[in-house]
């Protein structure tokens, strides 16, 4: 492919990423752009050029050893719900803007520790960035079949211009605001998009190689088994190789937490804490898909291309060897995506660390304390932009001068070993409150010096001089001091060996000096907050111990210089309102000092924020005894507050229950009054009819016999109505006082239902309502048939009242359970209003949703039914109701 054509395509691709990032920055509230899947996919920035190309090289030469780099993150994923969530909560509370800030905060906002963490990250990541640029350079050369820096000048090297464009991208979208703790949505969505692209392109080349160049996976394995390297590549090795696996998996486990780019995307760019649950399964799935074809591409490359080319680039060279340039171009852009993601996020994260932990606290803090907010903001942005360009230019210089010696896999592991020196102070500090800043500093320095001696120094000497005698003979030709076989341990790979010794020394020094150091009160405060994550929200205010004199106006002036007047006043209003403090308060307490430092942390880092605030307050040193006393009092106050809060909740619950009970009593009284009115009316109506008919019969002896019969029938019906009403009242009274004895006999439920339906058919026919018995199979059990008929009559009669004329339909069904029979009565009526549903089985209660103006009956039907079913040790309940009908169910034990 033409050099210029590929360059134009690269520029177009970078322009597309610019557009995506710009578009997202304008649409930050779009729910799709804030999806948990965007967050989860951003984790795939882990898959840099090292994994995209380097894994294939390792698979070709060492078999499945490449999996160790992925097993660590997969093992770590389930722990994110504990560890990562804890880190996210602390970072959000304290407006943390970088890994260095987080570790510095844990140890009392120690300025030197923050600077040390920054330097360690630079030492590990700058060579790592350089190998990304190496990958661009070498793949560009492969695609264009000629060197891209033939003249020896950097101005003829296309990689130099790509690096500059990436620096511009990171500087533009990464420095929109001085508050580095704010989200960079444009960059993150671009990273997620690139993650998808590099996965898709990698899967495409995997499918092409496996199923187009070969006849599937088994065909590749069969052909590769005839090569001379087969046994060496497919053999896992013994116990010694197992140690290499273990230490390399530990390295990748640590890296997924502590690589600056991973901390940036996983902790600082998260929108909602619950998104972690999505990342727990999406990211491991991504890694699984990414590695399906690695082995087969590697073996295919060995079969077709042999050992004549760099195995790391088999994914490019295989399609090119077949003349399939388009496929090779897709692979190239997948690799370019991997590089762009890593370079942008890493340079952004490192630039914030350099700004907040090196340049500002060690040079420009005095300048900031005198300037105005606009000048300070502009200056901070310029520092970060300068840092981004500095990082990428230094990485390019490292690549340009050491490109021959660089190996994607080896440099990647070297970066992991260096970054792992932060692990003891990070992980142990999260769960052990005795960890001290002195232990963290000495541990990191000691571990790094060991890593430098065992890994970095041998590489540097060999790269500059080409001499390997230092590796072969050791320092002063002492065998026990061989850098790759320190004290006789010679079976580990260089990276695993360096990690074992440096990590062991680091942990020992950290624990030893922490146990033998009495930390100052700040360290103890923040240790309490970090370790006791369950009570973090309470401790983050109460555990901050401070003694001295400070004025609100002085603190306000400092905040104004960085946040501006409007933001400062808004923040202070929120603070005063939260703690119910008068806004005209003159003296500041520990909470305001802590709050002010948090506000500044996102802009200038935790250490610088502490220094600025300390310049305007008169702080008195506290003894450890005083600190412990204050902390104890704070804990007691929190405990008492919790107890009072629980008591308050209990009282509120009791008050609510009493209120509901009182309301229910009032409603019952009203219902009882309505019931008595109804009973009086129901008694009066038939009595009036009987009396009128009797008087007519007595007065008019000449009345025709047909008319006499009519009046006598009316008297009989009214008498029956009176009898039913009195019987209902007596039944309920007997059931309520347990004086009603049930007559249990074995009966067939299908016949009982049929008998009830037949008795009510006339009433249903008057409204042209259909009653269907859905089952008629015989099932016998013990119950009082008269009482169950009474229940069914009540349920079906109610259904008739609620059903519409002509189209009404009532269904009676029953089915067997494990130890019960369940009977259901459903209709297609208008349903029961929500306000009635909780009361329909109460005595005296009548629904106002009937199809008539005046409610029928006495309101005792369902109450009596409930008593009868309970006497049978059963249950009756409203199963469902809506505008399309109601279903009531009855359960009787077998």
Any idea of the CATH class of the largest domain? Mainly Alpha
Q: Just name the CATH architecture of the largest domain.
A: Up-down Bundle
How are the strands of the largest sheet arranged? 4-6-7-9-8
The coarse silhouette is elongated
The biggest beta sheet reads: 5 strands, mixed
Q: Please report the total strand number as a whole number.
A: 9
> In the CATH scheme, what's the topology name of the largest domain?
Sodium/glucose cotransporter
Q: Count up the helices.
A: 35
Radius of gyration over all CA atoms, rounded: 41 Å
Q: Which key terms come to mind for this protein?
A:
894 residues, mainly alpha, Helix Hairpins, two-stranded antiparallel ribbon, 5-stranded mixed beta sheet, single chain, 6% strand, Sodium/glucose cotransporter
Give me the secondary-structure topology.
Blueprint: H1 3-26, H2 36-42, H3 49-62, H4 68-76, H5 83-93, H6 99-106, H7 111-144, H8 158-174, H9 185-213, H10 217-224, H11 230-234, H12 239-258, H13 260-268, H14 275-290, H15 294-305, H16 314-321, H17 325-368, H18 373-402, H19 408-419, H20 423-431, H21 437-465, H22 469-473, H23 494-515, H24 521-531, H25 536-542, E1 548-550, H26 552-563, H27 565-578, H28 590-604, H29 606-615, E2 617-619, H30 624-699, H31 705-736, E3 745-748, H32 749-766, E4 770-773, E5 780-783, H33 785-802, E6 809-816, E7 820-827, H34 834-837, H35 861-871, E8 875-882, E9 885-893
Parallel strand pairs: 4-6
Antiparallel strand pairs: 1-2, 3-5, 6-7, 7-9, 8-9
Helix pairs in contact: 1-8, 1-9, 2-9, 2-14, 3-15, 4-12, 6-7, 7-8, 7-17, 7-18, 7-19, 7-21, 8-17, 8-18, 9-15, 9-17, 10-15, 12-13, 12-19, 12-23, 13-17, 15-16, 16-17, 17-18, 17-29, 18-26, 19-23, 21-23, 26-27, 26-28, 28-29, 30-31, 31-35, 32-33, 33-35
């Amino acid at each position: 492919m033409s050099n210029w054509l590929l360059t134009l395509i690269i520029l177009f691709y970078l322009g597309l990423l610019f557009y995506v990032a710009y578009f997202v920055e304008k649409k930050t509230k779009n729910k799709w752009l804030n999806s948990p899947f965007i967050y989860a996919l951003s984790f795939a920035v882990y898959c840099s050029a090292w994994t995209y190309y380097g894994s294939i090289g390792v698979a070709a030469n060492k078999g499945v050893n490449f999996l160790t780099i992925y097993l660590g993150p997969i093992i770590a994923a389930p722990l994110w719900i504990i560890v990562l969530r804890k880190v996210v909560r602390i970072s959000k509370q304290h407006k943390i803007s970088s890994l260095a800030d987080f570790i510095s905060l844990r140890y009392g906002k120690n300025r030197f520790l923050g600077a040390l963490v920054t330097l360690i990250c630079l030492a590990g990541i700058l060579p790592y960035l350089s190998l990304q640029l190496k990958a661009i350079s070498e793949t560009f050369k492969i695609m264009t079949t000629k060197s891209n820096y033939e003249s020896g000048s950097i101005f003829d090297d296309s990689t130099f211009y790509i690096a500059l464009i990436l620096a511009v991208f990171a500087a533009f979208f990464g420095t929109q605001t001085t508050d580095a703790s704010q989200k960079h949505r444009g960059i993150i969505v671009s990273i997620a998009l690139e993650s998808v692209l590099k996965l898709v392109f990698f899967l495409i080349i995997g499918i092409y190689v496996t199923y187009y160049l070969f006849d599937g996976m088994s065909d590749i394995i069969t052909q590769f088994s005839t090569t001379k390297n087969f046994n060496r590549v497919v053999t896992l090795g013994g116990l010694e190789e197992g140690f290499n696996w273990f230490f390399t998996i530990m390295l990748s486990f640590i890296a997924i937490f502590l690589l600056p780019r991973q901390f940036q995307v996983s902790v600082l760019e998260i929108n909602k804490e619950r998104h972690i649950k999505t990342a727990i399964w999406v990211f491991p799935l991504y890694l699984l898909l990414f590695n399906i074809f690695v082995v087969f591409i590697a073996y295919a490359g060995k079969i077709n291309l042999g050992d004549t080319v760099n195995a790391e680039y088999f994914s490019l060279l295989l399609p090119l060897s077949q003349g399939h340039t388009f496929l090779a171009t897709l692979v190239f852009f997948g690799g370019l995506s991997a590089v762009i993601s890593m370079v942008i996020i890493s340079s952004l994260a490192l630039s914030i660390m350099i700004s907040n932990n090196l340049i500002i606290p060690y040079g420009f803090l005095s300048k900031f304390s005198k300037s105005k907010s606009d000048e300070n903001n502009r200056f901070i942005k310029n520092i970060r932009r300068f840092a981004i360009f500095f990082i990428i230019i230094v990485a390019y210089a490292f690549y340009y001068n050491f490109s021959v010696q660089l190996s994607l896999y080896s440099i990647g592991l070297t970066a992991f070993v260096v970054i792992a020196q932060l692990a003891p102070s990070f992980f142990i500090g999260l769960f052990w409150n005795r960890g001290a800043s002195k232990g963290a500093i000495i541990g990191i320095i000691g571990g790094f010096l060991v890593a430098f001696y065992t890994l970095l120094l041998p590489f540097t000497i060999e790269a500059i001089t080409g001499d390997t005698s230092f590796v072969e003979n050791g320092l002063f030709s002492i065998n026990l001091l061989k850098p790759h076989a320190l004290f006789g341990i010679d079976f580990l790979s260089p990276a695993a060996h360096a990690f074992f010794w440096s990590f062991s020394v680091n942990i020992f020094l950290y624990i030893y000096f922490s146990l033998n150091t009495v930390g100052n009160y700040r360290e103890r405060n923040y240790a309490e907050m970090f370790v006791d994550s369950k009570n973090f929200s309470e401790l983050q205010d109460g555990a901050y111990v401070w003694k001295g004199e400070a004025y609100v106006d002085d603190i306000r002036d400092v905040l104004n210089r960085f946040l501006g007047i409007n933001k400062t006043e808004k923040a202070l209003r929120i603070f005063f309102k939260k703690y119910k403090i008068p806004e005209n308060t003159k003296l500041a307490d520990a909470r305001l000092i802590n709050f002010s430092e948090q506000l500044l942390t996102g802009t200038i880092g935790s250490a610088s924020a502490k220094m600025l605030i300390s310049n305007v307050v008169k702080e008195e040193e506290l003894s450890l005894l005083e600190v412990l006393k204050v902390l104890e009092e704070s804990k007691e106050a929190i405990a008492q507050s919790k107890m009072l809060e629980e008591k308050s909740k209990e009282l509120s619950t009791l008050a609510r229950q009493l209120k509901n009970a009182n309301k229910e009593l009032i409603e019952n009284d009203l219902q009882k009054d309505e019931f008595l009115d109804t009973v009086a009316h129901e008694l009066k109506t038939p009595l009036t009819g009987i009396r009128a008919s009797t008087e007519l019969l007595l007065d008019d002896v000449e009345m025709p016999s047909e008319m006499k019969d009519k009046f006598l029938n009316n008297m009989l019906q009214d008498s029956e109505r009176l009898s039913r009403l009195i019987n209902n009242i007596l039944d309920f009274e007997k059931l309520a006082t347990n004086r009603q004895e049930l007559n249990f006999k074995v009966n067939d439920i299908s016949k009982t239902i049929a008998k009830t339906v037949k008795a009510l058919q006339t009433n249903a026919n008057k409204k042209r309502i259909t009653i269907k018995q859905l089952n008629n199979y015989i099932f016998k059990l013990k119950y009082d048939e008269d009482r169950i008929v009474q229940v069914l009559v009540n349920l079906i009669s109610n259904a008739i009242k609620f059903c519409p004329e002509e189209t009404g339909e009532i269904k009676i069904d029953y089915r067997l359970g494990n130890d019960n029979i369940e009977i259901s009565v459903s209709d297609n009526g208008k349903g029961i209003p929500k306000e009635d549903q909780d009361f329909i089985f109460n005595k005296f209660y009548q629904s106002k949703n009937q199809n008539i103006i005046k409610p029928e009956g006495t309101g005792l039907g369902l109450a009596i039914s409930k008593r009868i079913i309970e006497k049978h040790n059963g249950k009756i309940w409203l199963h469902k109701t809506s505008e399309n009908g109601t279903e009531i169910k009855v359960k009787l034990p077998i």
